[in-house]
Design a protein that fits this description.
3 domains, DNA polymerase, domain 1, mainly alpha, 8 strands, hpI Integrase, Chain A, 376 residues, 3-stranded antiparallel β-sheet, single chain
Length: 376
């Protein structure tokens, strides 16, 4: 049975705890507490830990719980423990002073990392391993994204762990054992010609037809196209307005006449998806949306340049994202100013979406009109 005592020599102001170690040896240790009540809690908790260990039931979580009780007794505050999910959400709050663009990047990486962890996101932060980080990085390259994107994403996650190390919330950064992927597999992204887009349209079926037109005439990314809702359309002003999934920034694009005609053939209403068979689907993987579009390219007889990537992957210079490049390239070739093209592909000013003037909207509409229509 544990008990507390004053230093029999009278040389210490602290209470001492007499208790038995798991091997049965009785010891006499300072509690470093001057208050009798706090010292008693410390001593009894320490004794319970030894008894639990002796019975073979002292797990890491139980040990942290007991230490937290001791800390709360002496300081009034329990041990500040974080799960991986709780820590990274807390870390993002500390990053609010960052530029909107950088913060959006951090938020996206954290969302994807926690999603990759699945249920393991509820483990203590120090229980996350290099295997978890490796699986996250593999999910990025497996989705067809570049090694540069994978390296940058791991760097962001590593920064989160380093922040935890600095405030003693973990004792390890599992990212440091991963060598950076060699970025030798980069490949220049090409654009589709109007003739190639027409072939893609003819080779596609169902919702993919509308998705291809929407991407080609608006420059929207695959995830935004797949999950576009009918409420994004303003038929009166002939515009499409939505918040980009990647950057979390609002965007308004005037409707190209050919796109408007196609959408009016079978319009929906409200928040229903424009392309229900694509909405909510994963973009990566062989059977994801990226893989489906690749199959459409093959059916249309369209092939880009190829390069060997890490993990045995083969990168192509042509992909769904090339429709976005086609959109911007067509305007660039027509002499549309860079700042106008930027407004049509992603705002850099958070206040820009407060509303375009009539003149601004007509300038954007004229720019979109430079995108060549598709011939049947």
């Amino acid at each position: 049975m544990a008990s507390i005592h004053k230093d029999p020599r009278g040389k210490s102001p602290f209470w001492y705890c007499a208790y038995k170690l798991p091997d049965g040896k009785r010891v006499f240790r300072s509690t470093r507490c001057t208050g009798k009540k706090e010292a008693k809690v410390f001593c009894e908790t320490l004794a319970r830990a030894c008894e639990t260990a002796k019975a073979g039931r002292l797990t890491e979580d139980r040990a942290r719980e007991l230490i937290s009780q001791i800390l709360e007794a002496s300081t009034g505050k329990p041990l500040a423990s974080y799960t991986a999910k709780a820590w990274f959400e807390h870390w993002l709050k500390l990053k609010k002073a960052r530029s909107p663009k950088t913060l959006a990047r951090y938020e996206q990486v954290v969302r994807d990392f926690l999603s990759s962890l699945g249920q393991r996101a509820e483990l203590w932060l120090h229980q996350i391993t290099s295997d978890d980080v490796l699986a996250y990085r593999d999910s990025i390259t497996g989705a067809g994204k570049t090694t540069r994107t994978a390296n940058l994403s791991v760097t962001v996650v590593s920064a989160g762990f380093n922040a935890a190390l600095r405030v003693h919330k973990t004792d390890i950064n599992p990212c440091v054992v991963l060598d950076k992927l060699v970025e030798e597999d980069s490949i220049k992204r090409d654009t589709f010609t109007p003739e190639q887009v027409a072939k893609l349209f003819e080779a596609s079926e169902g919702d993919w037809k509308g998705a291809i037109l929407l991407a080609y005439f608006t420059g929207a990314r695959l995830s935004d196209v797949a999950n576009m809702q009918w409420s994004a359309l303003d038929w009166k002003n002939k515009t499409l307005s939505f918040t980009q999934h990647k950057t979390k920034k609002p965007l308004t694009v005037p409707l190209h006449p050919q796109l408007e005609r196609a959408l009016r053939k079978n319009p929906g209403i409200g928040m229903t998806p424009m392309f229900p068979t694509l909405a909510g689907r994963d973009t990566g993987g062989k059977h994801g949306l990226t893989g489906q579009f690749k199959a459409i390219m093959e059916k249309a007889g369209i092939n880009g340049k190829h390069a060997q990537a890490s993990g045995g992957r083969i990168l192509s210079s042509l992909s769904f994202h090339s429709l976005r490049h086609s959109f911007t390239s067509a305007m660039a070739n027509a002499g549309v100013a860079p700042e106008v093209r930027m407004k049509l592909t992603g705002h850099s000013d958070k206040d820009v979406h407060q509303g375009y003037t009539h003149h601004e909207l007509e300038t954007l509409r004229a720019a979109v009109a430079h995108v060549p229509g598709l011939k049947p």
